[in-house]
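4.2 Preliminary Data

To establish feasibility before requesting continued support, the project team ran the inverse folding procedure on a target of 571 residues. The structure was first converted into the token representation described in Section 3, and no sequence information of any kind was made available to the design step. The complete token record follows.
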């Protein structure tokens, strides 16, 4: 009796078990990241840099969508450090995001912190980097997210996948460089070279032997995962005699489009397919700066790696063959940067709200503080100090607590929630000469509160104060759609007609056009405190940042979890 009625239940249970065994469970990847000083030789000299596990670039993390990462960061260096998992949505794991004094206090020398988070709904290339002072100059690595088991890429499976990380090399200690600039109020020095996977390449002294090689087979299609990890330069990238088909940016797929040149801003990633359809020899991948600011110093070097066809041919093949050199756009070729940005679209029609709950307008740009008695003032005219702001607020990071901790425990006096929704004074933002009265922002720690689930439409407007410049604006904890971009002052009446509500690209970092604007939109579905900032490190240091405070929704799944027990405190 009992057996006959329980049979269907038992059968169901067994089938569920079989299914569960067949579908491989989401994995938990455990890693140990030891932050430490490491000797390396670059540009003819030995240097002591800060690395993770002695590797430069640091370890590549490879996961599938749905997996969990558990990374124990142990600080054996002499500096405070935090690690940020750039582009990871961190849904309900805001304590693992990493920016110093925003979601945690720094990990002190000798201490450790375990970052634990799950990757949901994101596939492609992201990366991780230090989010403390200028340590990310050498503390960075790739974070590759493949589709879950049994799910394919939305393009033919490439026969080879190669992370190509663009960086900046400094002969000086980058932490000293920014400390000196903060002391004097002047602009920091620029890098001495760019790097590909940590190597400056053939065009720089004492670098030829170590130039990054990318071996390929004739006829195959490779997926190159470009990451711009440079501190302060946007970069053009080309490959000699090869077209690139862009298939993803910032771990969101794109409508494939073919191009000779990429423009990648710091914080951004670009996945491209390259078919090795040229005569089997050697070709340079090269990158150099896109510089939109006027009258500022920049690193004018070119970094290179070499794509080496394995032709199975031949004596004489190999290092003796001089690789073909690609044409790169001029340093100030804004048209090339604009054309590239215009090519990036979501693969299909996406769900974009045609109205928002919050209409925000933030100016982004530089500024100057007047010299106060007792200060060094190495800014323009030797009587100013450089600064930067959003909506005339120059962001000041707290020192005694992190913003998220202060929010969770309602600690008063750490921040205020009155970041302005609009510029306090409206003016001709992109005029040739903005009145000097408008150049001096107000230093403060202001957050903008967002109701859980609200649709946020945000205009980011560059200003010409000091100099107009393309600013790569990055939001933590969110991807957003870029509805439109343009030049001049954003005009609501006219420019709304340019909005793409069909297949706008989805990103975590938008390169706001020089003397122009970008309109982005996202749904505030992730409670926490989320930093938004310029990803040129010199600008975030000067205050080109703010943070959103996304309130809890209803119920446990829409609320902030308590902090992990090992969350570093400021003490
Ligand atoms: Cu900037």
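Position-by-position output of the design step:
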């Amino acid at each position: 009796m009992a057996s006959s009625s329980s049979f269907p239940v038992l059968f169901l249970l067994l089938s569920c078990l079989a299914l569960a065994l067949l579908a491989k469970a989401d994995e938990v990847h455990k890693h140990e990241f030891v932050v430490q000083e490491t000797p390396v030789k670059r540009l003819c000299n030995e240097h002591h840099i800060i690395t993770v596990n002695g590797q430069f670039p640091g370890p590549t993390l490879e996961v599938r969508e749905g997996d969990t990462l558990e990374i124990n960061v142990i600080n054996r260096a002499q500096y405070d450090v935090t690690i940020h998992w750039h582009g990871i949505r961190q849904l309900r794991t805001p304590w693992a995001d990493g920016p110093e004094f925003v979601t945690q206090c720094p990990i002190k020398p000798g201490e450790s912190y375990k970052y634990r988070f799950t990757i949901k709904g994101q596939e492609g290339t992201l990366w991780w980097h230090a989010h403390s002072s200028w340590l990310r100059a050498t503390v960075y690595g790739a974070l590759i997210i493949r589709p879950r088991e049994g799910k394919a890429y939305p393009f033919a499976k490439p026969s080879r996948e190669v992370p190509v990380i663009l960086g900046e090399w400094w002969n000086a200690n980058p932490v000293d460089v920014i400390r000196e600039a903060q002391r004097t109020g002047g602009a920091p020095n620029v890098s001495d070279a760019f790097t590909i996977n940590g190597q400056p390449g053939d065009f720089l002294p004492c670098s030829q032997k170590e130039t990054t090689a990318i071996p390929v087979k004739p006829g195959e299609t490779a997926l190159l995962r470009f990451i711009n990890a440079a501190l302060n330069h946007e970069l053009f990238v080309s490959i000699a005699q090869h077209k690139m088909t862009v298939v993803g940016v910032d771990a969101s797929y794109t409508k494939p489009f073919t191009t000779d040149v990429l423009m990648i801003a710091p914080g951004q990633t670009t996945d491209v397919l390259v078919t090795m359809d040229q005569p089997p020899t050697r070709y340079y991948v090269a990158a150099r700066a896109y510089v939109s600011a006027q009258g500022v110093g920049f690193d004018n070097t070119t970094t290179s790696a070499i794509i080496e066809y394995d032709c199975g041919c031949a004596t004489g093949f190999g290092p003796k063959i001089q690789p073909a050199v690609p044409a790169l756009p001029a340093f100030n070729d804004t048209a090339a940067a604009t054309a590239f940005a215009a090519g990036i679209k979501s693969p299909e029609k996406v769900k974009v709200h045609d109205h928002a709950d919050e209409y925000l307008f933030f100016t982004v740009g530089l500024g100057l503080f007047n010299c106060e008695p007792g200060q060094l003032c190495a800014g323009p005219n030797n009587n100013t100090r450089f600064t930067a702001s959003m909506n005339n607020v120059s962001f000041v990071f707290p020192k005694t607590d992190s913003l998220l901790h202060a929010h969770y425990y309602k600690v008063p006096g750490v921040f205020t929630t009155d970041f302005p929704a609009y510029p306090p004074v409206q003016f001709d933002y992109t005029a040739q000469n903005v009145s000097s009265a408008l150049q001096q922002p107000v230093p403060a720690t202001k957050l903008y509160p967002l109701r859980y689930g609200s649709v946020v439409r945000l205009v980011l407007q560059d200003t010409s104060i000091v100099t107009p410049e393309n600013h790569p604006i990055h939001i933590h904890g969110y991807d957003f759609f870029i509805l439109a971009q343009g030049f001049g002052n954003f005009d609501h009446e006219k420019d709304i007609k340019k909005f793409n509500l069909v297949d706008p690209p989805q990103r975590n970092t938008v390169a706001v056009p020089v003397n122009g604007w970008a309109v982005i939109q996202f749904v505030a579905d992730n409670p926490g405190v989320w930093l938004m900032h310029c990803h040129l490190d010199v600008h975030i240091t000067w205050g080109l940042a703010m943070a959103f405070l996304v309130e809890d929704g209803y119920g446990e799944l829409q609320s902030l979890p308590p902090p992990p027990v090992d969350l570093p405190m400021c003490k």
